[in-house]
Specification:
Blueprint: E1 16-22, E2 28-30, H1 40-48, E3 55-62, E4 67-70, H2 72-82, H3 91-102
Helix pairs in contact: 2-3
């Protein structure tokens, strides 16, 4: 029986972040991103650049260290602290932070 290719990134020794985005009536899906765009710094920048329409959950994992966890609240808290650095914060980020901080 043929095996499916692994979704585990090869030779990445850093924490990988993925965003679950809500596309309304089309449903929710894990947003695709290039391999180099999965680090925390790039994730924060992409969120603040309004590259996700409705982020609802963020997970992080590190296959080399063997862990995964929901980091939604951690990322929302970091975004909230960075608001002072930006003249205008995207509505998608404001809604994400508000929702994440209620849970």
């Amino acid at each position: 029986m043929p095996r499916s290719p692994s979704i585990v990134p090869h030779s990445i020794d850093h924490d990988t972040y993925l965003v679950l985005n809500d596309f309304g009536r089309l449903g929710r899906a894990w947003s695709e991103t290039d391999e180099e765009g999965t680090d925390r710094k790039t994730l924060i920048r992409r969120l603040l650049d309004d590259q996700y329409s409705r982020p609802v959950r963020i997970v992080a994992f590190n296959t080399n260290e063997g862990w995964s966890r929901d980091v939604t609240t951690d990322i929302a808290d970091e975004l909230r602290r960075r608001f002072v650095e930006y003249e205008e914060v995207p509505r998608s980020v404001l809604e994400f932070v508000e929702t994440a901080m209620r849970h």
